[in-house]
TrEMBL record, chain A:
<dbReference type="Pfam" id="PF03817">
    <property type="entry name" value="MadL"/>
</dbReference>
<feature type="transmembrane region" description="Helical">
    <location>
        <begin position="62"/>
        <end position="82"/>
    </location>
</feature>
<protein>
    <submittedName>
        <fullName>Malonate transporter, MadL subunit</fullName>
    </submittedName>
</protein>
<keyword id="KW-1133">Transmembrane helix</keyword>
<dbReference type="GO" id="GO:0016020">
    <property type="term" value="C:membrane"/>
</dbReference>
<feature type="transmembrane region" description="Helical">
    <location>
        <begin position="7"/>
        <end position="27"/>
    </location>
</feature>
<feature type="transmembrane region" description="Helical">
    <location>
        <begin position="88"/>
        <end position="113"/>
    </location>
</feature>
<keyword id="KW-0472">Membrane</keyword>
<keyword id="KW-0812">Transmembrane</keyword>
Automatic annotation (TrEMBL), chain B:
<dbReference type="GO" id="GO:0044668">
    <property type="term" value="F:sodium:malonate symporter activity"/>
</dbReference>
<feature type="transmembrane region" description="Helical">
    <location>
        <begin position="165"/>
        <end position="186"/>
    </location>
</feature>
<feature type="domain" description="Malonate/sodium symporter MadM subunit N-terminal">
    <location>
        <begin position="8"/>
        <end position="253"/>
    </location>
</feature>
<dbReference type="InterPro" id="IPR004691">
    <property type="entry name" value="Mal/Na_symporter_MadM"/>
</dbReference>
<feature type="transmembrane region" description="Helical">
    <location>
        <begin position="12"/>
        <end position="32"/>
    </location>
</feature>
<feature type="transmembrane region" description="Helical">
    <location>
        <begin position="44"/>
        <end position="60"/>
    </location>
</feature>
<feature type="transmembrane region" description="Helical">
    <location>
        <begin position="72"/>
        <end position="96"/>
    </location>
</feature>
<feature type="transmembrane region" description="Helical">
    <location>
        <begin position="198"/>
        <end position="218"/>
    </location>
</feature>
<protein>
    <submittedName>
        <fullName>Malonate transporter, MadM subunit</fullName>
    </submittedName>
</protein>
Length: 128, 254
């Protein structure tokens, strides 16, 4: 059933957030440290474990999860619409500078890291 | 009278009304981008429409919660709140194969780490240069420079104000939109013409919508390679930025 997919993601979310909040408590930060990341990692591990065992998820269970992930962009749009944008615009330069420079920085790193991997490939060919 | 009934409908069916409203925003955004044959920019446009509506609502109500401050749109606050946001983000990890992670291999891993680190560093430097001194706020803005999800996830975890969370989303949206626009022009310069480079590019840029849009405009065959690594950035960023990232920033500024 589709609801099983929801349930699985819910379980991952609770376990992941538990770990995140536990770490938060330990390091003395209010709230959740990486809970969403842990939950995603857990979902990847669980689904891959079942695939490896040859036990594929029931199609409807899988549909439940796919349906949730299809809601991701609409939920993000809703999230954008409830932000304090008026206040953000007051310091909008930060957003443009941070986002813009991060993009340019990332793009410029592409040839450098690609080159590193070409060398790696050549080494492997040499060994052959 | 009809207006009163309509209003009471929005009040009693808040979340359903929010689904309808967001569907309408998506419809208009994809309609607009479809009309100029740029359909892949639909999600970025829809997010911008959301931010614009939040701006207008903020101007009207003087509140800090955008559309959710308008009584009849309060349901959007539930739909766009951290509960459903985290729930749906986690679900996107479904279908990621560990083998694919390994297949991307060294270039993928290096680009993931380098992408998150460089974006985080640039975002943090910009935040500090522009006067932010609170470690949680700097970390949130730096998270926004990674992707428009990492920023709010970080900000919510560290308990910063909605203003800073909005800034981090805006930074991520700037990144996403800019990526879609400049990628086809800059692709020949950075030799973005093969699967390996596309995987590296996906990991470095990280915004899935930006990467998918940018690669679609460059060479559609490269889209899955870039998207594959890009999908890991938000998860890995959500894990690293509020934890290690915050500890580093707090170490420097406390």
């Amino acid at each position: 059933m589709e609801i099983y997919g929801f349930g699985l993601v819910a379980l991952c979310m609770f376990i992941g957030s538990f770990i995140g909040r536990f770490i938060g408590d330990i390091i003395g930060v209010q709230g959740d440290v990486g809970g969403v990341g842990f939950a995603m990692l857990l979902l990847v591990l669980v689904t891959n474990y079942f695939e490896k065992k040859g036990k594929h998820f029931d199609e409807k269970t899988s549909k439940g999860i796919v349906f949730l992930s299809a809601l991701y962009i609409p939920v993000v749009v809703a999230m954008a619409s409830i932000q304090n944008v008026v206040a953000a615009f007051a310091g909008g330069l930060v957003a443009f500078a941070a986002g813009g420079l991060a993009t340019i920085g990332g793009l410029l790193l592409v040839p450098i890291i690609s080159k590193l991997t070409v060398k790696e490939d050549m080494k492997m060919e040499d060994k052959k | 009278m009809a207006i009163d009934i309509l209003k009471s409908l929005f009040l009693s069916y808040g979340l359903v009304g929010a689904f309808g409203l967001i569907a309408l925003i998506m419809l208009i955004s994809y309609g607009l981008t479809g009309a100029i044959k740029q359909k892949r920019m639909g999600s970025a446009v829809a997010i911008i429409v959301g931010l614009v509506l939040a701006y207008i609502a903020g101007k009207i109500t003087g509140g800090s919660k955008g559309l959710a401050d308008i009584e009849i749109f309060a349901g959007v606050g539930l739909l766009g709140g951290s509960m459903l946001r985290d729930f749906t983000i986690i679900s996107t990890a479904y279908g990621v194969k560990i083998e694919n992670l390994k297949k991307a291999g060294l270039p993928g891993i290096v680009s993931l780490i380098a992408g998150i680190f460089s974006s985080f560093l640039i975002g943090a430097v910009v935040a500090v240069l522009l006067g932010y001194r609170d470690a949680a706020e700097i970390t949130t803005i730096a998270g926004g420079a990674v992707t428009f999800i990492v920023g709010p996830v970080t900000g919510t975890a560290l308990g910063v104000s909605s203003e800073v969370i909005a800034l981090s989303i805006a930074a991520g949206v700037v990144k996403s939109v800019l990526t879609m626009i400049v990628t086809p022009f800059i692709a020949p310069i950075i030799k973005l013409d093969n699967p390996t480079a596309a995987m590296v590019y996906g990991g470095l840029i990280g915004t899935t919508s930006g990467v998918a849009g940018g690669l679609a405009a460059t060479d559609t065959k490269l889209v899955p390679y870039g998207a594959m690594t890009a999908t890991f950035v938000t998860g890995l960023g959500s894990l690293l930025v509020p934890s290690i990232g915050f500890l580093i920033i707090r170490g420097i500024f406390n």
